[in-house]
Design a protein that fits this description.
The protein is α+β, with helices and mostly antiparallel strands and 193 residues long. It has a single domain, classed as Aminopeptidase, CATH 3.40.630. The protein is built from four helices and eight strands, in the order E-E-H-H-E-E-E-H-E-H-E-E. It has an eight-stranded mixed sheet, with helices on both faces. A hairpin with a 5-residue loop joins strand 1 and strand 2. Helix 1 crosses helix 2. It is globular and about 40 Å long. It binds coenzyme A. The site of coenzyme A (COA) has 18 residues, from strand 5, helix 3 and helix 4. The site of coenzyme A has 18 residues, from strand 5, helix 3 and helix 4.
């Protein structure tokens, strides 16, 4: 269940430390991050989100479940009350994004940040950018006093599962249904400093 209240109004990137609003690539180019609401996404940005997700994930979707259904993914990517952090190289070229919503946990006892997507173009992977972007989501969650980040990871996506578990410390969620195709992962956030 998504939370609708005044969260729409705030610029989420204001929760992020100034020094984390950019990231330097090994070639010294700069990546900057822009926070977006669903209604502020242009059609060309929506096309970018869909194309990048398709390029990265299509094979894994054919592996399990119903396969890749473009229209369904488009619906998910533009789900109501979604927010986005878009990563740009040199302030102009989008190279990746995270999509998230504020939701209630299974028991409806606490608000959580649910990360729906984290996608990077291939040549920008393995240099710490994914970790950095998940750190941005942690800071946003902190800014809204949320205690947890939850996400779904396809089990066929071994690299991503290792990234979430080993690099970032996510654990299997207590409500993970044990599906052969995917796992629900959660990270409890340390109290705000
Ligand atoms: C999964 C994904 C988001 C991870 O992002 P990433 O930027 O590649 O990950 P990072 O570089 O932050 O960390 C990954 C690894 O690189 C290492 N790393 C971090 N900084 C590094 C650096 N400066 N130089 C080299 N390696 C580095 C990390 O230690 C980590 O090591 P590990 O493989 O032992 O876990 C990215 O690979 C991706 O977009 N994949 C395709 C889409 C996808 O699968 N999304 C997840 C859907 S659930």
């Amino acid at each position: 269940m998504a939370l609708k209240y005044p969260l729409q109004c705030r610029n989420h990137m204001s929760c992020v430390k100034e020094e984390d609003k950019t990231f330097t690539l090994p070639d010294m180019k700069t990546v900057n991050f822009v926070g977006r609401t669903l209604s502020s996404l242009s059609q060309s940005m929506i096309n970018f989100l869909l194309k990048l997700t398709e390029r990265n994930m299509k094979k894994m979707y054919t592996f399990f479940n119903k396969g890749w259904i473009r229209d369904e993914k488009l619906k998910e990517l533009t789900k109501r009350y979604s927010f986005y952090v878009i990563a740009y190289e040199d302030n102009k070229t989008p190279i990746g994004f995270a999509q998230y919503r504020f939701e209630l946990n299974e028991e409806k006892t606490k608000s959580i940040l649910y990360c729906y997507e984290l996608q990077l173009q291939r040549r920008y992977r393995g240099v710490g950018l994914g970790r950095h972007m998940m750190g941005l989501l942690e800071q946003i969650a902190h800014g809204f006093l949320l205690k947890e980040i939850t996400l779904t990871c396809q089990k066929a996506n071994k690299r991503a599962e290792r990234f979430y578990r080993k690099t970032l410390g996510y654990k299997t969620d207590t409500h993970d249904p044990g599906d052969p195709g995917y796992v629900i992962l959660t990270k409890a956030l340390p109290p705000a400093r």
